[in-house]
Amino acid sequence: MIYARSLVLRRTLPFLISALALGLVAGCDDDNGSSSSNSSSSSSSGSGGAGGQDAGFRLSGSLSYEYVPFDADLEKLDYGKIEKRPIRGASVRLIDADTDAEIAKTTSDDEGAYSFDYTGAAKVKLWVYAQTEAPSLTVEDNTSGDEVYVMESNTADSAEDAKLDVLAATGWDGTAYTKIRAAAPFAVLDTAYTAARRFLDEVSPPPAFPPLKFNWSINNRPEEGDKAMGQVGTSHFDGEELYILGKEDVDTDEFDSHIIVHEWGHWFDQTLGRADTIGGTHGSGDIEDPRLAWSEGFCTALSAIILDPDTTYTDSSGPGQASGFANDVEMNDNNAESSPGWFSETTVHGVVYDLYDGPNEPFDQVSVGIKGIYEAHQSQKNKASFTTLFSFVASLKENDPQAAPGIDAVTSFYNASADFGIDPIEDEWGTNETHSGGFPGSLPVYKQGVVGNSYTVDLTGDGESNRLSQNVYYQIEGDGMPITVTSTSPSNVDLAVFNAGVLVTSDENPSGEESLTFNSEAGTIYVLSVRGYNTMPVSYAADITISH
């Protein structure tokens, strides 16, 4: 049975908010409810009359949800091997079953266990929120006014030692979702909780995670439009919150844990680190702008790191969630056909994961662990350069110089040809990198821009503007005076100047005639980004002038 209640709770903030969304009920077995596999059970023993105002009562039990694993061989969700997992760290409220008044609240432990000692209510029930407090994570329904998902249990008679276990079931009947999909929001919550806990438990001092919201709905589908209607495009981080697909027979991601961690990684990267990615369409084998390659590759590596030893990145979709794909992050791809290099997200995730894991391959004899990954991630955000594989590895070497030979061995594994691969990384600027990705204009990675000089940038058109072939960088050292940069090109070319990843100024008019001026600080290194938008696979040039 679905209870669509509206409950107002007072929090520590001085205002009232609506906090109860779909009452996902465990323990009903009717046309709208859950099957017996989704039922709660309650029992009581000992003395203490139910309803006695001075009696001392205790209620305890376990909270769990059903998780559907992915069959990597058949590339689909495997409903025949559903697992029971604990609901950890969740906010649990003890409710007077007769009045719906809150009696007490607690959080479940790492085994999903909870307990309450209380007095006064003859019958009680639980409201289990898809919400944790440490760290602060919330799963809400973007198609229902952003209300938080709550699972309501059966009632239990108050007694000295009453037991009440609650299970959030998938709602799957063997061929389709025919009942409440109570497990879904708790699966999303638990995956996010796993990601945060890895850092909180293994990094010292632990990171301070700000609150994060996940938007999941059975209406969320791969369609662009109104997110309040479920038109979220794809599972993604929008710069503030995460949106997770949930449309049955189209694309559901609640059990695609690697997808959830990957998107959580984008939030982690932006919130605790620095994300310079320019975004856009991307995929395995693409020769990408290195900011994009770093961001996507790092987040994929992070999914394997967090879910280790499950290193296979999976995604289910289609009718019955019986389609999808599976890629093992640990399977290192250095074939020339896959275009390996500092511009490849596939190479990035391979490098980052191998730097994290233990020595287990001839070329991989280094292991920095999650602590080393985190520390390099933190150091990287202070670099003058963009966040790329170069800035990350340079940070890693600075933090642990003794590991440098092992780090170089990992990156050198990806040398496939003269054009595709990575040279030993010397610094954040990719100095002396020789692999061009097939586009000579991409080297050096950062060109020197001197005030008073003019340069010609060689670009190559592509259907996407986030490719390596359409992005060129210049280092410009400030001298304390205003600096002007202009461009002339037959194609649309944009200019932008950054200081340690922060946009200083830009000119992005729809032509090749651009001009910008910024006040420079003496000795500060600025990065000029030249980005082209020619959609035809042809070579074209942009003349760049840097002056006072």
What are the key terms here?
548 residues; alpha+beta; Neutral Protease, domain 2; Jelly Rolls; 3 domains; twelve-stranded mixed β-sheet; five-stranded mixed β-sheet; 34 strands; 18% helix; 31% strand; elongated; disordered N terminus
In brief, what are we looking at here?
With 548 residues, the chain is an alpha+beta fold. Helices cover 18% and strands 31% of the residues. A hairpin with a 5-residue loop joins strand 24 and strand 25.
Topology:
Elements: E1 2-3, E2 8-10, E3 16-18, E4 23-25, E5 41-43, E6 57-67, E7 70-71, E8 76-77, E9 83-86, E10 90-96, E11 102-107, E12 113-118, E13 123-133, E14 136-141, E15 147-148, E16 150-152, E17 156-157, E18 162-168, H1 183-202, E19 212-216, E20 236-237, E21 242-244, E22 246-247, E23 251-252, H2 257-272, H3 290-307, E24 312-317, E25 323-328, H4 345-356, H5 369-380, H6 389-399, H7 404-412, E26 446-449, E27 454-460, E28 471-477, E29 482-488, E30 493-499, E31 502-507, E32 514-519, E33 525-532, E34 539-547
Parallel strand pairs: 4-16, 6-18, 14-19, 19-21, 26-28
Antiparallel strand pairs: 1-4, 2-3, 5-18, 6-9, 6-12, 7-8, 10-11, 10-13, 13-14, 13-16, 13-17, 14-15, 20-21, 22-23, 24-25, 27-34, 28-33, 29-32, 29-34, 30-31, 30-33
Helix pairs in contact: 1-2, 2-3, 3-4, 5-6
Report on this structure.
With 548 residues, the protein is α+β, with helices and mostly antiparallel strands. The protein folds into 3 domains: 272 residues, no CATH class; 160 residues, Neutral Protease, domain 2; 106 residues, Jelly Rolls (Sandwich), CATH 2.60.120.380. 18% of the residues lie in helices and 31% in strands. The chain contains 7 helices and 34 strands. Strands 1, 4, 10, 11, 13, 14, 15, 16, 17, 19, 20 and 21 form a 12-stranded mixed beta sheet that branches. Strands 5, 6, 9, 12 and 18 form a 5-stranded mixed beta sheet that branches. α1 crosses α2, α2 packs across α3 and α3 packs across α4. The termini are far apart. The N terminus is likely disordered.
